[in-house]
What does this fold into?
Amino acid sequence: MPPMHRRVFLSGALGAAAATLGGPRGLGAQPPALSFATSTGAVGLITQIVRRLDLEKKYDLKLDLKVLDPAAAEKALLLRQVDAGLFPVLTAADLQAKAQDIVVFAPLLYIHTNLMVWQDAPYQSLTDLRGKRIAILDKVSGAYRGMQLLAARARLDFERDFQPVTGPPPALVAFLQRKQVEALAIHEPLVSKLLAEGKFRVVFGLNDEYKKVARRDWLFLGAAAHRDWLAQNRAAARRLGEILLESQRQLSRNPDLVEAEAEFLGLKTRPEIDLARERMPRVFPTEWNDGMVAGAMEAVREAVRLGQIKQASQDFITLLK
It folds into this structure.
C-alpha cells in the first residue's frame, strides 16, 4: 500500500475504532486524577491507546500517567509514589510473604521478555550461557524474576551460575551492541527493533519456554495497588481495569494501533514497525476471569516449588467483581 494511502487508511480505521466506544457513563464533577505508573515499553502502548481512543471519558476516570522505565514504574508503586501501576505477579506474591500487601487487580502482559544474542554467537540455550554476562532489568522486575524461575527449572541458579548485569533498557541494549555482555534479556518493542537491525537473534522467548510445560501463557505483569488503597478506591480500580482491558482488546482487533504509536515506541523504520505490528498484539491478555487467575497462580506455585518464593496464597490477586 502506498504511504499516502496507508496514512489515510490508518486515520480512517482508528477513527472508526474510537467511534464505536460510546460516550461518557454519566455527567457530574470531574473525579480526581488517579496516578498510574506506566512504562516506556509495551504497557506504555496500552496507556497511549487509552488516550488515543478517549477511554477515560467513556469510563469516567481521569488518569495521571507516569511514564517510566519498567523497573522504575514497579518501584514507584512499591514506594507509594503512585496510586496504582504495573507490577510483576511473582514479585507481588513474594512481597505478600514479606508482609507487603500489593494486590494485582487487572492483567497487563504475558511475559514478553526474550533472550537475545548476536547473530553469529554460538549460544543456543540458557545452559550454553552458563558463566556468561547477561544484561537484564533490575531485580524487582518481572524479567529478572522470570529468568530466575527458568534458570531454576534447568537446575541452575540465575545469580550464582550467570553474571547478571542490571540497568535501564537503553543501557542494556548498548551493552549488547558493544559486546560488553554475551546476551540480553529484553522486552518489546526493543526486541523488534533489534531484530530489524539484522545483527541479532532470539535464543528463546520466556513465554515460549514456560508454555512447553504449563501449556498456557504466563501472565507476569498486572495492574496493581497497595491493599489499603484498593479497599478505599475499589470502584475507581474496577473502572481502571476495564479501561486497560478495553485498550488491549482494541489493539488485538486493530494492530495498526502499533503503527499509530510508532513515535512513542521509538519505531523509526518500516521493518521495525512491521515486526512490532506482528509481534506486539499477541503479548496482551484480552480477558480477566477465574481461568486467568488460576493460570497466574500456576506460575506462582511453580516458583514456590523451585524455591523462588516462600509461600503461595491467592490473596494478592483479585478480579474486583
